[in-house]
Write a structure and sequence with these properties.
This protein is α/β, with parallel strands linked by helices. The protein has eleven helices and nine strands.
Amino acid sequence: MTLAEKAERLRRLHQAPPVLVLPNAWDVASARIFASFPSCRALATTSAGIAAALGYPDGERIPREEMIAVAGRIARAVEVPVSADLEAGYGDPGGTAEAAIEAGLAGMNLEDAAGDAGEHVERIREVRATGERRGVPFVINARIDLYIEAAGAPEERFPGTVERARRYVEAGADCIFVPAVEDAETIGRLAAAIDAPLNVLAGPSTPPVAQLERLGVARVTVGSGAMRATLPLVRRIGEELLEAGTFGFTGAGLPFGELMRLVER
């Protein structure tokens, strides 16, 4: 598929059941493992996971070039479309979208950090214009951060989110991402009130995929959750190796040959 075809496929995957479950990869190995499942129809990246793996905190502390270099390697390593978490666009949303498209990415997250909605409208317009100029129906997942930032009074977050969603969709967003909402009632209300596909960030108390689909959710991601879930295993390996002085973990991993086949281009 061309990149334009991948982007169009990603856009269509948001439009109808079943809900689009996007594993968030942080490197080529994780991406290829996720993509090996027949039910994997697309992938996302995790900004926090990529940043942490390279020694940076989250929040655009990793240089844009390094973030897109990793996301691009992921995109080129799999056949399915890949959407990258590119945070707030690094102060240059149009340029960030240009670099993402050049790297082979089919879409991006663009977060508002609970800031001025009008400014975010302009960011979305810049990204949309970049995609149109490049002939790619680049998928914009506009993130609204009123809940995750605990912005304003609690009773104002729902109507504020719905209003921002309306403005962002009018500006060209394809999907609305509302992190930090895990209860079924609020998720269902948001899905009903927002006239666009809704992306939920899944956590331990999030309803299962089947229930999210019944609630009207179109897209589910896990952010850095998958990457973070691997780190306690690394800690246990360290405990066995450095404290117990045993090597049982070496027999539990992916065989070397399989690892090489996994990453072979």
